[in-house]
Amino acid sequence: MKHNTEGRIQNIHLLDSLNASGKMAPGMVGWLIGSMSLHHHQEGSANITNAQLDYGGIRMSFHKEWFTANISLGFDIDLRLPFNNHIIKTHERMNLSVEFWLEKDEFGRRDLVIGKCHVEPRSVHTTFLTEAIPPKVNPFLRNFRDNLEKVIPHLIESQVCPLIDEILRQLDVKLLKSLMEQDIAHKLNQL
Fold first, then answer.
1. Residue 66 in contact with residue 101, Cβ under 8 Å?
2. Which of 44, 56, 98, 150 could be joined to 69 by an S-S link, Cβ 3.0–4.6 Å?
3. What Pfam families is this protein classified in (predicted)?
């Protein structure tokens, strides 16, 4: 809430990224069709709604003071087709992995360092929520899904990972040290 997570995810410039994702004709129609120039048609839109960022747990690495946070991200896209004004609803789901660790400074204090944040390979899934899709639109939607699954990882890494970084920076170093101590105690009890 404090970081306006849903609002920031909803403001991702999805359509701009899709239009720039390949060597296509300009505009959404050109991107969907790949060759036609339909200047007389209305521009399409893609709005992100229902953003959900779910914490999937923190794993501690074998390396001391090294952690991985697993986060699932889901959102809906309302795609208004420019050539017939139909609205197609999709749901996107993917998993993010964020590495972070504690590093001692020159005074022996531990600071939290955020490392790599990325979308897990092959975790991006698109589901069409609209049931009554005209058959003529299906080839366009397949192209949309394929391009979306190529664009989303980079888009999320460039626009959502900085948000994740801000959220993780709120973690207390003492809490992480406590997690490490609990993990060590648990491993010793298993011996």
1. yes
2. 98
3. LBP_BPI_CETP
